[in-house]
Specification:
Strand order of the largest sheet: 1-2-6-3-7-18
CATH class of the largest domain: Alpha Beta
Distance between the termini: 37 Å
Number of helices: 14
Structural class: alpha+beta
Strand content: 15-25%
Largest sheet: 6 strands, mixed
Length: 426
């Protein structure tokens, strides 16, 4: 369980478990220890042609904390209940990490001899921005994991939007940036028995939270969004609505499927979500400093100065009392989607889901793909899922309660990885 501290995660145990599973002929295995029990496992099938494209199947092995009180089954029990595996990480993303391992093992057992190299990476620390996982591997052991093409989390779950030409399966071609920030709200200390007209940082912070939560940045319709709308083959009226900035905002504020509304809003807006507050020293002391944590996710082209201008606009007259400290500044990035990897994904997906068409989409959250994109790789988030779990349930399970995945989805994803590797590399 990765709570963000350096010695949490315990991914070394997962790396060892996967190594034991994958051991056998046809695979070169190596474990890389980043310290504090943070282990990364690499498995390779070397290609015969160094000039051929290489493929990395990358999954993380860490999971976020879970509160058992909100679950119907033990979040760390890994129980199989009525054809579904329950547990933290079932969709984020141990399902894909495990199905990738199954695909690689089957390929090795079948004496797969590709032209291009196939690599499997089970990495640590994705849930705390990759310092002991993908980022660490690229900085310290790049030759072990570098590939031209990368597949990781998470796409392939059909959205409940109308289309007149078969299933549409989103593939994550890029992701928003993370500009996590601390808003330090200043006041003046004093005795809490005399609160009249005091400069109370906590009271001021409550208003800061309200203003940030209600702030509505401008809608941005970038190239990925426009390609998503074009390829989804929506009814003309809906396509026109989603191709207009005002129409997108109105759609997201009224669409009955809340999961879809939230996602489509997030991929067309820089978002601000206050998530934590700390302040005060004692009940009878007026607090002079309160710190607010705000999860800010940025669209392409939005960096620190633009975020600062948005916060100034949101805070208005309170801006001079608020100090903004950037805790992270990972910019948004994206891969092109006119590539051989896209074509292989399309062929493999259509073979498993008849008449399916892939559509590009931006991820609202960060993934380890961003490290590889920044260095020039083509990196997508993919997968395949059955219709057993609804899109609304699927979206709510990420870092939420009752996380689970059905066995058919695991089978489909395993078949997808095997088919793409064979198509692209052989």
């Amino acid at each position: 369980m990765n709570d963000g501290t350096p010695d949490s995660g315990g991914e070394l145990r997962s790396a060892d478990l996967l190594r034991d599973y994958l051991e056998g002929p046809g695979l070169d295995l190596e474990r890389y220890d980043a310290g504090n029990g943070r282990g990364n496992l690499v498995a390779r099938i070397e290609g015969s042609d160094p000039s051929a494209p290489s493929l990395l199947l990358m999954g993380h092995t860490d999971v976020v904390p879970a509160n058992p009180e909100g679950w119907r089954h033990d979040p760390f029990g890994g129980e199989l209940v009525d054809g579904e595996i329950w547990g933290r990480g079932a969709v984020d993303m141990l399902n894909l990490t495990a199905s990738m391992a199954v695909a690689v093992k089957h390929l090795a057992a079948a004496s797969f001899a590709p032209r291009g190299t196939l690599i499997y990476l089970a990495c640590a620390d994705e849930e705390a921005l990759g310092a002991f996982g993908a980022d660490w591997m690229l900085r310290n052991h790049r030759d072990a994991v570098w590939a031209d093409c990368v597949l990781t989390e998470s796409g392939g779950f059909a959205m409940p939007l109308p289309s007149s030409s078969g299933p549409k399966l989103p593939v994550i071609v890029g992701e928003k940036g993370a500009y996590w920030s601390t808003l330090r709200v200043h006041g003046t200390p004093g005795h809490a028995s005399m609160p009249l007209r005091t400069d109370n940082a906590l009271v001021k912070a409550a208003e800061v939270v309200r203003r940030v939560a209600e702030y509505r940045p401008a809608t941005t319709l970038d190239g990925v969004w426009r390609a998503f709308i074009e390829r989804y083959d929506l009814p003309p009226e809906l396509a026109a609505r989603l191709g207009d900035a005002d129409g997108v905002r109105a759609f997201c504020e009224s669409y009955e499927d809340l999961g879809v509304a939230r996602e489509l809003h997030a991929v067309t807006h820089t978002t601000f979500a206050p998530t934590m507050a700390r302040g005060g020293v004692k009940t009878n002391v007026i607090p002079d400093v309160v710190e607010l944590q705000v999860d800010i996710r940025t669209l392409p082209g939005v960096r620190g100065p633009e975020v600062g201008a948005m916060l100034d606009e949101a805070l208005g007259d309170l801006a001079p009392s608020v100090e903004v400290v950037a805790d992270s500044d990972d910019p948004a990035n994206a891969s092109p989607f006119d590539t051989p990897l896209w074509d292989s994904l399309q062929r493999a997906s259509r073979a498993l889901v008849p008449n399916a068409t892939l559509v590009p989409l931006t991820s609202t959250g960060a993934t380890d793909a961003r490290f590889f994109r920044a260095l020039g790789a083509t990196a997508y988030g993919a997968g395949l899922f059955s219709e057993r779990i609804s899109y609304a349930e699927y979206g709510a399970m990420f870092h939420g309660n009752d996380e689970r995945v059905d066995l058919e989805s695991l089978r489909l994803s395993s078949e997808l990885w095997r088919a793409v590797a064979t198509d692209l590399l052989a």
